[in-house]
Amino acid sequence: MDLEEYQKARKLGDRQMHRAAAAGRYPYLPALDEILGKDGGTLSQVSLGIRDIPIASIAGTKTAGRQNAFASNFMPILDADTEFADKWSRVYRYQITEGISDPIKVYEYMMKFYVLEGNKRVSVMKYLKMPEIEADVTRIIPARSNEKDVQIYYEFMDFFKVCPIYELSFTRTGSYQEFIDRVGESHTVPWSSDTVHMVEGACYRWETLYEAEVGDKVPNLTAGDALLVYLDFYSLKSLLDQPRTVLAKRLERMLKEFRLTAEDHPVSLQENPSAKQPVSGNFFQNLLRRPPVFTEEQPLHAAFIYDQDPDHSGMVNDHEIGRFYVSNALEGRLVTKAYFNADSDEALRKIIDQAAQDHADAIFTVSPAQMPETLKAAFHYRNIHFLNCSVNLPHNSVRTYSVRIYEAKFLMGALAASRTKNHRIGYVADCPVYGELASINAFAIGAAMIDPDVQISLKWSSSRVHDWRKELKEEGISVLSGPDLAKPQEDNTEYGVYQMEPDGRVLNLAAPSYNWGRYYELILRTIMNGTYEDDLSVSSPAALNYWYGMSAGVIDVVLSDQLSYYTRKMVQLFRKSVIEGSLNPFEGELRSQGRLIQNAKAGKLPNEEIIEMNWLNDNIRGSIPDPEELEERAARIMEISGIRKDRV
Predict the structure, then answer these.
(1) How many angstroms separate the CA atoms of 227 and 18, rounded?
(2) First-to-last CA distance in the chain?
(3) What is the largest CA-CA distance in the chain?
(4) Is the CB of residue 527 less than 8 Å from the CB of residue 293?
(5) What is the pTM (predicted TM-score) of this model?
(6) Rounded to an integer, what is the distance from CA 111 to the centroid of its chain?
(7) CA distance 519 to 15
(8) Hey, which of 7, 239, 385, 617 would disulfide with 441, CB 3.0 to 4.6 Å?
């Protein structure tokens, strides 16, 4: 009977050998000593003791001695009348009757295991499809390098210190840190044994579920990478609490999100309003046009959800002005409603539920910090269009929209340089979210085009420890780029580009002007006329990010009447060139504080590199802060939509 099982296992091995030969792959087990070569003896080793390891992660043998007795799937390939076959059969019989208890000895390298003692035990356990085996593990640590796999492995070793499991692997840097954040545990303090067992069980169930329900449907996404997508919507513990049928339905509905995550460039930026707008024409053309989806009898209901109220936030006040504008522009076919102070996940969740009960067809959330709950709501309310005011947050279920504010900052930098007398300008930024560094650098480049000797002193208004007003005053800086907007209820003139007069007065010179009403009109018209889905202009599954600028009329610069005719003419000339596309701050030679970004013959930086910019121009004095250095609100936004140190 035991020999019959060996023959079955040998058939599996023979089949694997034929597949490998047909594909031109090495048919036997790989040997770690051969993989490491002569450098193997110089690498550090550390004993991890006896622990359960996933059998699926056992990749080969430590030495070349026994590798030719097995196919690459660890199934035996020697004849049934050999001593090896007899020993294999005895191990099989012992596992069936008693259960293998002696740990095997393995070396772990880059999260794969290579067997020193116990190859036949591994073969039997793989044949029986057992998930784990007890092993005495010695880790071989690769030398640090810039190779992506090595960087990920060092991140895994840090993760292993707090959660010593092997059931979780990723293919992208930063993923282990993201996973820890999603679970809500410590990055440095070891987790409790109950938590470790929960994570281990959930990850094992996820891998088996993902392979069964998704598998080849998304060939470029591993189970680990897909798990981070799942955690955007549900908790890790839900993988243990929910029945398989419920989890399978969730995965089926998440296929678009999985495919989006598998893309190299998951975000498609639409720089200008789509040309797919209904146009007037002759009778026959109008017959071919699709009928409006929303009419005066059945208007579109749009909800605008803010994290603050317009009395305390200039940003909210600006968006509210935009809501009033679009309500009037589309009067009769559009009904809007505002909801305020959704400043926590719980509050936002309740308000979205209320907006859905109020028959909202489209919901706009206006802060990147609101994206996680917006995403969960979009997954629940499938018949509502969800949009979030942010950039570079790729989700198929939620479209994002933002302005190319760097274009306005470029003009404001040139203006500021024309006013300073000591070649120094202050720049006050909020927090380093996507797109913010592009604005800072565009300002610095615009200033340097007018004054090549100018220096930009960068401060962060959300800093916990720094007082930007005091520091800039001590540095003798009188021309500043402050916050974009003034707070509505405060008599505050320290916004936009302004100049501090010797007597303490503030002279406002220019400020960015957001036309959110125009922006909302462009988006809502596509929903009202049934062209919203056509508006993608890209092939699925890319996530659409509206990224309009001056050419679309959604952002501009307001100039003070006190500026000279020559200064105004200079700014208007720059503005015209930016709108026409003949002038861009990120074209040609670019230099950061520490390196050459591109040479003088280079064209404009790709949009993705502008948005994800993580360097500061060479005439900037300042640095990018850590989240821990910022106030809670800014740190929260940076966590979701910020430039992190691992990206810098």
Answers:
(1) 34
(2) 61
(3) 102
(4) yes
(5) 0.78
(6) 25
(7) 61
(8) 617
